[in-house]
Amino acid sequence: MARVLIAGCGDVGTTLGLALAADGDEVVGLRRRPEQLPAPIVPARADLRTGDGLGQAARDVSVLVYAAAADGFTDDAYRAAYVVGLRNVLEALRAACAPLERVLFTSSTAVYAQGDGGFVDETSATEPAGFSGKRLLEAEALLLGSGVTASVLRLAGIYGPGRTRLIDEVRSGRATVPDEGVPAYTNRIHVADCAGAARHLRHLPAARAHGVWLGVDHEPCDRAVVLDWLADRLGVARPRRVAAGRDASGAQRGRGGNKRCSNAKLTGAGYAFRFPTFREGYADVLARLEEPGPAA
After folding, report:
1. Helices in 111-221 by DSSP H: which ranges?
2. Which has fewest Cβ within 10 Å: 41, 56, 140, 171?
3. Three-state secondary structure call for residue 30
4. pTM for this one?
5. Rounded to an integer, what distance in angstroms lies between the CA atom of residue 171 and that of residue 175?
């Protein structure tokens, strides 16, 4: 049995923690407000940004999962969450003489800047223009240069229970689709497969698990296809098409990368997706939304 510390134990970390506990690990969930963590995850209070409380949590840890999220979409928030926080945890583990065997770090496909609709994998160039990708790469380099066996899992857009932004936009009629004539590819992964892929990497032999992995489902897809599918399932009008590069009001609108991320390395290592495409995943989310709540 390993003692696993999940630093940043949000929905992905909690789902993973419950799975690892079922596997026989002792799991400690670290967050600033840990009261709501479900058993058997052991709650621990600490602040990754300042290091307060990390010393106690770091004792006897052999596996670290770093799954923190930034408090906001700013350079300072990303630096605090991913670079400073990771450094603080690694230093606390060293100071505690923890028997650390491996680290799993949840990164993001934001490290890629490709925009031509082509495929990218773990060997593709990482030259992000935005601060988010740059800070994540900085954290990846910090970890991979630390001398510890480390798996960096670059996750695409996460969706699942409680992450229903696209559903809400389609249902309300706010969603629009740029009328560009070419696909605007998006990549995604269900929260259950985020945790499932991380669990799979945790159990791979250390030498095989070390390095970078892409956490995306089987089907990079034109955003318009996803939105239209959701509209049809919800029984509402399909999103309006608007002029390319502009939002519904006609204002100029920026656009991120346009790429298709490959999960061939992850599936080649034996991981079987619970939700292989957005269709299975969103069908599950919609079914949960339709479930009746508890009686008053």
Report:
1. 131-144, 165-172, 191-203, 206-209
2. 56
3. strand
4. 0.93
5. 8
